[in-house]
Amino acid sequence: MDRFETLTAFVAVADRGGFAAAARALDKSPPAITRAVAALERQLGVTLFHRSTRATSLTDEGAVFLDRARRLLIDLREAEQIVMGGRSAPQGHLYVTAPVMFGRLHVLPAISAMLASHARLNVRMMLLDRNVRIIEEGIDVAVRIGPLADSALRVVTIGSVRQTIVASPDYLAEHGVPAAPADLRAHRCIVGSGVRVGSTWPFGAKGETLVEVTPRLTVNTIDATIAAAEAGLGLANVLSYQAADAIAAGRLVRVLEAYAPSPMPVSLLYDAGRAAMPAVRAFIDTMRERGRRWAWG
Asked: What b-and-e string marks burial along 177-206, b requiring 16 or more CB atoms within 10 Å of the CB?
């Protein structure tokens, strides 16, 4: 059996915690994944997984081998793309991750344009409102919003967004417009349960002024937060790009703009080893151009 296939199967089982889940992720049959892992174990002369009817877990040898297997797959994939693409047209596979709403509104159109122009290119998008391990997951480019921790990854800044407090015109007509952040304590507020902001809302250039709001409604998606604000249920704390369409259509109104924290960067992160891949270069160029044309902030 092909060594690349056995390594791919092994990593998929480890990442997804089971043979059936790995089979679904790789669009293979469970017996095919089982055979691939068994073949790899025979080649290595070790057992990589503890198997039971309830769970699949790595053995000590499997845990040691996992990081090396990931690196081998990444290196093989990079070599394949560079050889296939050279310095020419993007082709092969491109793996991108981005925040859910930003990915839907701004990354998907960029990917659609690339796919229309490059018939031999395939793209996998993973939209998540949390950061993932770029190297370990084999991701080519990650879109990140907000300050970045120091790392060895390359960074390209393509724009910025800012905190935006919004409410419907009807809500503001009935309850009044807050004149200062402290006024939010007397207002109905819609709070998200995601990682960016909960019931503590920052204001001031450095976010140094914190206001604890009382949630009238708590939801776990941005789409629901926007919809609730449009329905007049209260004030919502979102990012500028998330409410841009509703603001332009008059369904939502910005408030407390003078107290907003400084804009947050929108960045592309990628490993230096991927810089030569035509698909990566094309994606970066496409997103840069989109950042120039769209006022995300």
From this structure: ebeebeebeebbbbbbebeebeeebbbeee
C-alpha separations of 83 from 47, 271, 281 in Å = 34, 18, 15
The answer to whether residues 162 and 260 touch, using CB atoms and an 8 Å cutoff, is yes
- Say whether 21 sits in a helix, a strand or coil: helix
Count CB-CB contacts under 10 A for residue 292: 10
Structure tokens at 87: 């310095």
Q: Could you tell me how far CA 67 lies from the centroid of its own chain? A: 22
Q: Answer yes or no: pTM beyond 0.90.
A: no
Rg (Cα) of the chain, in Å, rounded? 23
Q: What is the pLDDT of residues 13-65, one digit of tens each?
A: 998 889 998 998 888 899 999 999 999 999 999 999 999 878 899 999 999 99
Handedness of CA 135, 138, 143, 144 (dihedral sign): negative
Number of H helices, E strands in the chain: 10, 14
